[in-house]
Design brief:
Blueprint: H1 2-21, E1 31-32, E2 38-39, H2 45-52, H3 56-63, H4 72-85, H5 91-98, E3 103-108, H6 114-129, E4 133-138, H7 143-150, E5 160-163, H8 172-180, E6 185-188, E7 198-202, H9 204-217, E8 223-227, H10 235-250, E9 257-259, H11 268-273, E10 279-282, H12 288-297, E11 307-311, H13 321-327, E12 335-337, H14 341-356, E13 365-368
Parallel strand pairs: 3-4, 3-5, 5-6, 6-7, 7-13, 8-9, 8-10, 10-11, 11-12
Antiparallel strand pairs: 1-2
Helix pairs in contact: 6-14, 9-10
Length: about 375
């Protein structure tokens, strides 16, 4: 009985509100109050084009923020009219007619890394500037998740893929199948060689060579390379190690590969206690906080006892007094070589959209040089 009475009063309240406010409770269509509650047909893009005496395609380009040569006055007229009629473009209908969703899947290995956070930011900016949205696919170094996201190419929901491969070998067959099917795809940062897929990446080999030479010129001879034990197959780690190795060989110095998060022979902590390298070339700045904690643990100062050269700036957390004390082991700035993340994003989006638009189907390799500030 209580439920029936409650339902009765809800219906009565809605009825009263509908009568008093003359609104459509269901929200199906707008109501013209001057016409006594008669439903008004939805305004179409063609209606707006006819009223402004402009082409439908021109108005569509202005609405979608596409590159189009038009005066500020005309653009303002269109946008004002859109606002006046509260016009909302039908994206689904547009996609069906053009067979384009204007949507790009952006597959990255781990958004916990500052580099990928910045990369996604600039990719989204550049894609939006060219009339595309992105869907972020964070695979968290998981090859199964990577495969699931790659299979989106069969869904018809996306126009292309920007991908950073998880480990440089897994899912090779799937990548090759996507390329064979002619679906637009571009590797950005990490890639799998010899797949026929276009690549946009940093000149990692040359960058690591420059960092190592910088340390050698400062008089260091015991220089270790610090990588990730889980990333040994990635092109980023391979190429950066090769750059380091080349510089060491040219100067007759012994190479040493260490892993920051591993115990045993290649443990960085063990090396700091026993081998005592005087300098480190880091695969990335993501490891820096752990390195500084080890320096603090063993009473080492940077660069007095240990010089550090790395790719990209790093952001230390300041969540506790312990974090603040850890940073005090750094007496001078680290040697930092920056990747041009914005240039990487712009180039990757350009190459992909050229594929989507059929401008180019050739395999393209673009390598962006890193730089010192």
């Amino acid at each position: 009985m209580l439920k029936k009475r409650s339902y009765f009063w809800v219906r009565m309240l809605l009825h009263v509100k509908k009568e008093n406010d003359n609104i459509n409770v269901t929200g199906d269509k707008p109501i013209d109050h001057s016409a006594g509650g008669i439903h008004v047909p939805k305004v179409t893009l063609q209606d707006i084009a006819d009223e402004l005496q402009l082409s439908k395609s021109l108005i569509s380009k202005i609405i979608n923020n596409r590159d189009v040569r038009v005066s500020d006055e005309v653009r303002k007229k269109v946008l004002d009219k859109i606002k006046e009629y509260n016009y909302v473009p039908n994206r689904v209908a547009s996609a069906l007619s053009s067979k384009k969703m204007n949507l790009i899947a952006c597959i990255v290995t781990n958004t916990n890394y500052d580099f990928y956070t910045d990369l996604v930011f600039y990719i989204e900016q550049e894609a939006f500037r060219q009339g595309y949205n992105i869907i972020l696919c964070n695979i968290a170094e998981n090859t199964a998740r990577e495969a699931n996201y790659l299979k989106l190419y069969q869904s018809g929901l996306i126009d292309g893929i920007l991908a950073s491969s998880s480990d440089g070998t897994s899912n090779r067959e799937l990548y090759e199948q996507i390329h064979h099917d002619g679906f637009p795809i571009v590797f950005v940062d990490r890639y799998i060689p010899d797949t026929g897929i276009s690549v946009v990446a940093t000149e990692n080999r040359q960058g690591a060579y420059i960092l190592t030479q910088e340390l050698i010129q400062k008089g260091h001879k015991r220089i270790s390379f610090v990588g990730y034990d889980f990333a040994t197959k990635t092109t980023v780690q391979k190429n950066r190690y090769m750059g380091y190795a080349r510089a060491m060989e040219e100067n007759g110095l012994t190479q040493q590969l260490l892993y920051a998060a591993e115990e045993g022979e290649r443990s960085l902590e063990r090396a700091l206690q026993e081998d005592r390298p005087t300098a480190l070339v880091m695969i990335s700045s993501w490891q820096i906080p752990e390195i500084l904690k080890l320096c603090r643990k063993y009473g080492m100062k940077v660069p007095r006892d240990l010089s550090i050269a790395t790719f990209d700036e790093f952001r230390l957390p300041y969540n506790s007094m312990n974090d603040i004390q850890t940073t005090r082991v750094v007496e001078e700035p680290l040697i930092i070589l920056k990747q041009d993340v914005q240039a990487l994003a712009r180039a990757a989006v350009d190459v992909l959209i050229d594929q989507i638009n059929g401008v180019s189907k050739e395999e393209i390799h673009k390598f962006i040089p890193p730089y010192f500030e």
